[in-house]
Amino acid sequence: MRHIQRCALMVILSGLLLLTGCAPFVENNMIEELSPVIFWSLEDAGEGKLTISTLVPPLIRERKRILKLQVDLIKQGGKGFNLLYYRELKAGQLRILLIHEDLAKKGVVSLLNNLLTDPDISHRLYLVIVKGSFDDYINSQLLKQEKLDYFLYRMLKHYEKKNQGELTIVNLHHFMKKLYSPYSYPTLPVFKVNNENFTYEGTAFFKHDKLIANVKQADDQIIQLIGNNRYLKFLPIPELSVAVGHIRSKVDARINEDHSSMYMHVDLNGRIEEYRGNENILEPGQLAELNQEIKSYLEKQTTALLQKMQRWKVDPLQLGNVTRTPFSKGVPEQEWMDQWEKMKISVTYDLHFQPLTNVNP
């Protein structure tokens, strides 16, 4: 009996040692010697090389500066940063990856696959396309906004959490999920930068991992309504001197049997927030006329946007999924794109807008 007890004790002790044993790699985790990074900025340096930059330190009260390297591999950049800075830089708090549009046009799958398989990097990493020099913007703003990198992260997180439909917000997980879907046409937000401003411009369309085109202003708002969030906090239409708010949409897309035409119907519910035209919209008849003008405007804009997608040979709305049924996989991607290019498009809207009234009598 004693022998059995000793054997059981040895087994338990061995198990505890295995559970709490040493890792095969020794990591330096002394907080005084570490510096997390919030963003990496990537640009095309030509001849297959990358320019990678980041800002250090992210939060502590020291003078901030940009670290910048020309590398062949992202991991090489991480190692190189550690040789330039007295603290070891950790990617565990990496929250934003900014990709210059020229690099995105050449393809980003090898870069993103590397990040996706890195256990230290969150799949909630925000991906952003940048037009202009982000490093010049950071350098010009360092003395004006000490925690600029953190504020940029909080801005993206705010719009993702509130889901207001104002901005396209995409993280690594969402992008890769669309990239490896049957109809591989992901999207990313586009920001335009100069020395003074970091401004949201619109939505970038990809074909597989390569940037094809981007849309902005009215077209981007249509994308928010019929594609991304199907919600818009505000939809200003300057051409009609009206702004509509708190819009929710319901989209029904159908394709005929021979895939020669596509019909899209969009149901909108919202409220007229501002009107500076000549009609008296308190009168039911004139309100109906305004609604008809908005309806015609949206139908025309949406049709034009879908026709642009046909010319660019992209399907960011993944309308190809409409061809799938419970008993079939749908049309193969290349066959779908051949059909999509030639498809006749019909778009209709139904509007259910509350009139402009005093909500606090």
Automatic annotation (TrEMBL):
One of its GO terms (cellular component) is membrane. One of its GO terms (biological process) is spore germination. Residues 201-351 form the Spore germination GerAC-like C-terminal domain. Gene3D superfamilies: Nutrient germinant receptor protein C, domain 3. InterPro entries: GerAC_N, Spore_GerAC-like, Spore_GerAC-like_C, Spore_GerAC_C_sf. It is a lipid-anchor. It is found in: Membrane. Keywords: Germination, Lipoprotein, Membrane, Palmitate, Signal. Residues 32-192 form the Spore germination protein N-terminal domain. Belongs to the GerABKC lipoprotein family. This is Spore gernimation protein. The lineage of its organism: Bacteria, Bacillati, Bacillota, Bacilli, Bacillales.
